[in-house]
Amino acid sequence: HTVVKNNMAASLICSETVSRVSSVLNRDGRQFGKKHMFDSNEETCWHSDQGSPQWVLLEFPQPVRVSELKVQFQGGFTGNTCRLEGCLKDEEFKKLTDFYPEDNSSLQTFPIQGSPLAHKFKIVFENSTDFFGRIIVYSLDVLGART
Q1: What confidence score (pLDDT) does residue 8 get?
Q2: Which candidate, 138, 71, 132, places its Cα nearest to that of 100?
Q3: Alpha-carbon gap, residue 6 to 75, rounded angstroms
Q4: In terms of pTM, does the model score above 0.85?
Q5: Rounded mean pLDDT for each run of 10 residues along the chain, 147 residues in total
C-alpha cells in the first residue's frame, strides 16, 4: 500500500503501541481498563483509582513526532493540570509541555508546540477535578507523524 505524505497529522496509535496506566478502579481492567481509551466506543472508559498523580504511558514501535493530543474526559473527573513528557528509547523522561483541560465531557484538542520526537510519551494528570483524584478518559489519541 502507498503512504501519502502530507501535512495532515494522523493518529499514531497502532496495534504495536504499548500503553500502561498508573491505576485502574478496583483493578477491574475488563470494565475500566486502558484499552477502552482506544476502542472508539463512547460507552467505555479508563477509570483510574483514587490518588494523584495519575498517568498514561504510550510507547511507540519507532520514534514519532507528536503535534496534537486529543482527550475526552468525563466531566467532574478531568485532569486539572496536565503535562506531556517524552523520551527516546533508553533516556529519561523530559517535560515537553503543560496543558490545562476544561472540566467537561467534550473531546478536547491540545496542540504540541515543536512536534517533539520521542519513542515514549507520558501524559501526567497532576491533579483532578475529582476530590479523590480519580481520572476518567473515554478517548485518547495522539496525532503527528511517524519518522
Answers
A1: 66
A2: 71
A3: 35
A4: yes
A5: 59 96 98 97 97 97 96 98 96 97 98 95 97 98 94
SS3 state of residue 117: strand
DSSP state of 89: T
Return the C-alpha torsion angle 122, 58, 144, 94, nearest 10: 30
Q: Tell me the three cell numbers of residue 26.
A: 478496583
Output the nine-digit C-alpha cell for 18: 504499548
Show the DSSP H helices in the chain as ranges.
29-32
Contacts within 8 Å (CB) and 24+ apart, 42-46: 42/138, 42/139, 44/138, 45/74, 45/136, 45/137, 45/138, 46/21, 46/135, 46/136, 46/137, 46/140
- The identity of residue 42, as a single letter, is E
